[in-house]
Specification:
4 strands, mainly alpha, 196 residues
């Protein structure tokens, strides 16, 4: 890790933070209260976080190896918008973890619009991602183009996207048939000049 640049380390933490958001409130708290230690690569703490994150992913994949039980799909949290953003930017503007970071906020905006989470949860996740030097807004892309890229997502089923959304830290829900207006509004909110 010490051979990597600051940006690469930041984007690398996204997957572990994602696991915390969707499955482990205690891990989420660890990321919140140890920002300085983690960013300074405290060896004992960082090793522990990496091991916990790998165990979470390994458990989910082993429980649903062939994506038949709606379990493995949880790992795609933040990736729906993230992948569309990567494609729209020709994989040049954002590192994968940076696109997923923005995608996480997009998924939370949809969750909030559907009444699944409070503004406090959205704010706490957004502040955490920013604390780890990760982007939470889109800089320059047209939201309609990103929206059109969503239609090519691998989680499209019978013409409708399966979204991994949040109900609380550690609690997710999978939703389909989300109105286009909600998705477009969330993408618009992600624009840098419109985000608060």
């Amino acid at each position: 890790l010490k051979t990597l640049g600051k940006r690469e380390i930041a984007e690398g933490w996204v997957e572990a933070i994602k696991h915390a958001i969707i499955l482990d409130p205690t891990l989420f708290k660890t990321f919140q209260i140890n920002i300085s230690k983690i960013k300074n690569l405290d060896e004992i703490l960082v090793k522990d976080l990496i091991v916990k994150s790998i165990k979470i992913k390994a458990q989910i994949v082993s429980e649903d190896e062939f994506e038949k039980r709606n379990k493995r799909i949880l790992l795609n949290f933040g990736h729906t918008i993230g992948h569309a953003l990567e494609a729209e930017s020709n994989f040049e503007t954002y590192l994968h973890g940076e696109a997923v970071s923005i995608g996480i906020i997009g998924a939370l905006l949809i969750s909030k619009k559907l009444g699944l989470i409070t503004n406090e949860i959205l704010k706490s996740v957004s502040e955490l991602l920013k604390a780890y030097d990760l982007p939470t807004t889109i800089k320059k892309f047209k939201t309609k183009n990103i929206f059109n890229k969503l239609k090519h997502d691998k989680k499209m089923e019978k013409g409708s996207l399966k979204w991994v959304l949040l109900k609380n830290i550690g609690k997710t829900v999978i939703k389909q048939n989300i109105p286009e207006t909600i998705i477009l509004h969330s993408l618009e909110t992600l624009l840098e000049n419109k985000s608060k």
